[in-house]
Every structure is written in C-alpha cells, then in structure tokens.
Specification:
The complex is a heterodimer of chains A (112) and B (115). With 112 residues, chain A is mainly beta. Chain A has strands at residues 5-7, 10-14, 19-24, 31-37, 44-49, 55-58, 61-65, 71-76, 85-92, 100-102, 106-111. In chain A, the strands form 2 sheets. In chain A, strands 2, 4, 5, 9, 10 and 11 form a 6-stranded mixed β-sheet that branches. By secondary structure, chain B is mainly beta. In chain B, strands 2, 4, 5, 6, 9, 10 and 11 form a 7-stranded mixed β-sheet that branches. Chain B has a 4-stranded antiparallel β-sheet with strand order 1-3-8-7, with no helix packed on it. The longest helix of chain B has 4 residues, at 99-102. Classes of the chains: A mainly beta (112), B mainly beta (115). At the A-B interface, strand 4, strand 5, strand 9 and strand 10 of A face strand 5, strand 9, helix 1 and strand 10 of B.
C-alpha cells in the first residue's frame, strides 16, 4: 500500500505570512497532484507535477516535485484569508491512471 | 455548466435501511470513481469504472454496489446501512490515460449520516 504523509496536519497563520506544506512517501509516483477543498465542496485540482525536480507556479503558490518523485511541497507566499482550506496531495503510481492515493491533508487557516 | 453532479447532497437514514447516491458527469470523461471521506478528511477510493466496466474495487463491503448504466453515470447503492458508513461520499471523473496529467473532477459530495 502506498502512503502519502502530509505535514503539518493543521496550520494557522496570519495574513501576509509565508508557509510550506509537505507531502512525503517512500514510493515513487508517476505524477503528483495538489487539490484544495473548501467546506461542503469537493476537492479542486490546483496543479499536477510530473517530472522529478519540476517546479510550477500558480500566482502566489509554488509547487515542487522531488527529484526522486517521492515527495512534493507547496509554498504559499503572503497568504490571504482566501487561501484557507484543506490542501490535499495525491499520487498516481505505476501504469495505472485510474487510481489516486491521497494524503490526509493539511488544514490551513489564514486569519485576517 | 460542465460538472460532476451528485444527488442527494445530504442523506440521513436509519441503520438497516438501503439507500442510493447518484452521480452524473457531462465532461465527456470515460472513467468515474467513488471516494469516501471520513471524519478526519481522509479520502479513500472505493470503486472505479472505465466505460461502464469495473476496474477498481478497494476491499469495500459487499453491501456497497456501484452501477454504471453508461459512461456518464455512476451510482452507488448501499444495503443494510451501518453507523460506520456515515461519511461524505464523493464521485469523480477523469479521462482515461489522462488522469495522471489532468487530474480528477470531483462532485460536491453527499454527506451520509446513519442514525
């Protein structure tokens, strides 16, 4: 069974601060995705990283895939209250595109 | 609107009852999924269908039976509901062979409460 460990589990910060969320595994993934989930809604895809060492930017969010494709990080610069939500990483493995394994999520609260 | 829609949004029922959750997607995807999110927000896959064919069944009790009448629909029927079935159930879809790169589109969930 492939596991994705996310840390921290909870994060409460003030508006304007920077933060980093980590997603780690002992398994290699062919791609890794980050989702954000708001209360009462389903997860929404933020980004997919495929190549080891890849870095993608989405406005104030920076995503990195580890060189060995076993880990990833999400960095948010100058967090805003609108960034509040549950951040989930999910890995696709092997030749199967049909199954994503999710981490347990990081619940981020950005206080005004 | 293009989306994955599931009904009902909320479902409260007594132990032992049988209930169904419906899911439809109009994205033209050919792969659909059911995920269960527990009280700690952990998302775990239950089933996956590709073009109406079951391809993933993750050790889910036999009381759960998915049905896919066509590639745009995937319903979930649950027999003899138990307290432990209380959770949020999410339907999702992706394009086969592209889920790796383009991710899943999720519905907004069905909160099932068994009392």
């Amino acid at each position: 069974t492939q596991l994705l460990e996310q840390s921290p589990q909870f994060l409460s910060i003030q508006e304007g601060e920077n933060l980093t969320v980590y997603c780690n595994s002992s398994s290699v993934f062919s791609s890794l995705q980050w989702y954000r989930q708001e209360p009462g809604e389903g997860p929404v895809l933020l980004v997919t990283v495929v190549t080891g060492g890849e870095v993608k930017k989405l406005k104030r969010l920076t995503f990195q895939f580890g060189d060995a494709r076993k880990d990833s990080s999400l960095h948010i610069t100058a967090a805003q209250p609108g960034d509040t939500g549950l951040y989930l990483c999910a890995g696709a493995s092997g030749g199967s595109n049909y199954k994503l394994t999710f981490g347990k999520g990081t619940l981020l609260t950005v206080n005004p | 609107d293009t989306a994955v829609s599931q009904t009902p949004k909320y479902l409260v029922t007594q132990m032992g009852n049988d209930k169904s959750i419906k899911c439809e997607q109009n994205l033209g995807h050919d792969t659909m999924y059911w995920y269960k999110q527990d009280s700690k927000k952990f998302l775990k896959i239950m089933f996956s269908y590709n073009n109406k064919e079951l391809i993933i069944n993750e050790t889910v009790p036999n009381r759960f039976s998915p049905k896919s009448p066509d590639k745009a629909h995937l319903n979930l029927h649950i027999n003899s509901l138990e307290l432990g079935d209380s959770a949020v159930y999410f339907c999702a879809s992706s394009q086969a062979g592209q889920g790796r790169n383009y991710g899943y589109t999720f519905g907004s969930g069905t909160r099932l409460t068994v009392v």
